[in-house]
Amino acid sequence: MSAQAAKKPQIGVLALQGAFIEHEKMLQSLGATCHELREKSDLAAPLDGLVLPGGESTTQKKLLSDLGMYEPLREKIADGLPVLATCAGLILLARSATRDKCPYPSFGTLPVRVRRNAYGRQLGSFSTKGEIKGLGDFPMRFIRAPFIEEAAPEVDVLARVDGNIVAVRYGQQIGLAFHPELGTDTRLHAAFLSMIAS
User: In CATH, which of 1.20.1250.20, 3.50.50.60, 3.40.50.620, 3.40.50.880 is domain 3-197?
Assistant: First the structure.
């Protein structure tokens, strides 16, 4: 491996289900190397960060459990591995979620309560622009999206839409209710890589 390749941030992208390829393309355009995490052995790769993509949180939880990936990933996150989580990924991180009848646990490392499908089903999807702390106006695409009903005092609220919390940071974890990977604005992914570098 060349010295230049060695300096690239190594990002694990959970690739069990959902919109993971779009995250990979955006991160690769910013100079990162992505590793698809599909089975437990993939977690042995040295990772600088982790992406938990949108998709179907119940399906992702079940697959994480069935494949023996849940506990190793939870330990990595709890130990401080930087995480960017979008939509279903936010639900995976959250300490609790309403409307969640899934028998499989979330990682529970982000002290927030999330409302699943807060905007309704597919027909409730929409796009808007919102102010993100430190970034300014940002295009936001919501697809069967959650929002955060409650966040612990130590959680930094980064954005609200119609009064609802849709973006937070807690330590090395960034949780988003929307899908930045489906647009062309790379600033949130760049901010994630900057967080890793710092």
Answer: 3.40.50.880
